[in-house]
Amino acid sequence: MRDICPGDNLPVRARLWWKHTDGTTGYSAWKWDRNGCSDNGTNFGNVTRSGSDSISKVYLQVAVNFRPGQWVYDISPIRDNQYT
């Protein structure tokens, strides 16, 4: 995951959500860009998951901190796993 930042210097956080083929869900830990980033973006690093349950769908949840305590959330389109 990478925050490409429009140079707004607003802190962001992101995490992945997934749905298993048995209907249960899971999510990764939040990855943070606490300093508001610079114009060249911030790399959140890799996201890994333990477990062997098959994943049928996944999406990215992103939150932007416009003011202290005011997070605005959005999610990406859900991606289907074509192999399940």
What does this structure look like?
With 84 residues, the protein is mainly beta. Helix content is 0%, strand content 48%. The strands form two sheets. Strands 2, 3, 4, 6, 7 and 8 form a six-stranded antiparallel beta sheet that branches. A two-stranded antiparallel sheet has the order 1-5. The chain is elongated, with a radius of gyration of 14 Å. The model has no long low-confidence stretch (mean pLDDT 79).
Keywords:
84 residues, mainly beta, 6-stranded antiparallel β-sheet, two-stranded antiparallel ribbon, 8 strands, 0% helix, elongated
In short:
The chain has 84 residues and is mainly β. It has no helices and eight strands.
Outline the secondary-structure elements:
Elements: E1 2-3, E2 12-20, E3 25-27, E4 31-33, E5 42-43, E6 55-67, E7 70-75, E8 79-80
Antiparallel strand pairs: 1-5, 2-3, 2-4, 2-6, 6-7, 6-8
